[in-house]
Amino acid sequence: MDRFDAMQAFVRVVETRSFTRAADTLRMSKTTVTQLVQQLEARLRVKLLNRTTRKVNVTADGAAYYERAVRLLAELDDAETSLSDASTLPRGRLRVDLPAPFARLVVVPALPEFHARYPDIQIDFGVSDRMVDIIGENVDCVVRGGSILDQSLIARRIGDLTLGAFAAPSYIARRGKPLDPRELESGDHDVVGFLWARTRKTYPYVMHRGDERLEWQGHHAFTFDDGNAFQAAILAGLGVAWLPAYMAKAHVARSELVPLFDDWRFETMPMSVAYPPNRHVSAKLRVFIEWVASLMDEGAGPS
After folding, report:
1. I need a surface site. Which of 75, 145, 184, 219 has the fewest CB within 10 A?
2. Helix and strand numbers, DSSP H then E, in the chain
3. What 8-state DSSP symbol labels residue 151?
4. Domains of the chain with CATH codes
5. Any signal peptide, and if so, which residues (predicted)?
6. According to the model, what pLDDT value does residue 92 have?
7. pLDDT value at residue 303
8. What pLDDT, on the 0 to 100 scale, is given for residue 85?
9. Is the pLDDT of residue 83 over 60?
């Protein structure tokens, strides 16, 4: 029995509560994972997991061993990283989930520079706007806009997104250009809404003009839960919508979108990286987070 593999298999079964999901995330067969955990229990002479046909629960001994195993695996990762001289670059595989537009417009165009700097880091990207089970899917971190409400995660704020209201010229030609955001509440204009994965609802965006404060909601003709589809709907002239500045900039320059309500200012939206509290922040994860934060400074954040 490889004690490292067995410990890693046990940790993943505890975190996913499933031998099948643990096997998928470790890229092993379920039989292999089962055998490794059984061999570990035999070696330790304690029962680590209670298994039924429907679920897997950790025992009291298993919970205590899990806490130590997580720390040992983290220390081993640190030891492997620091064994060589100080100039050794971070290496290994990361699993990261990004919002689709942020991946397409900000991260992917900059990846050649990251790969040139850290050639030994391999990244598996999930590109979505869905809720991600970080522990169950063995994801190292997610990048998300808005507040991170899950108190079980550690969230690091890496910047703020500047927001604005926009419409396509085709929409303005058909419905007219709204001059005040309150016109959007009258029903005379359509709004394209974004459905947030954690609530499955749209929510109002706060705007300021001098001492005035307005929460902008509007009449939603269409709503989308994918950022790329949401942007495509706005470009197709389906309605007025908010957009982060980085998503609108190129389209405004090509006269494909028209900025609205120039005398109003949107409150910015926080952008954060979130990861599990028991997930060791390895050198490879640390440099990735710092790199994404630098991208926010360079162009995705306030302009």
Report:
1. 75
2. 10, 15
3. T
4. 3-82 (1.10.10.10), 92-161+270-300 (3.40.190.10), 163-267 (3.40.190.10)
5. none
6. 82
7. 46
8. 45
9. no
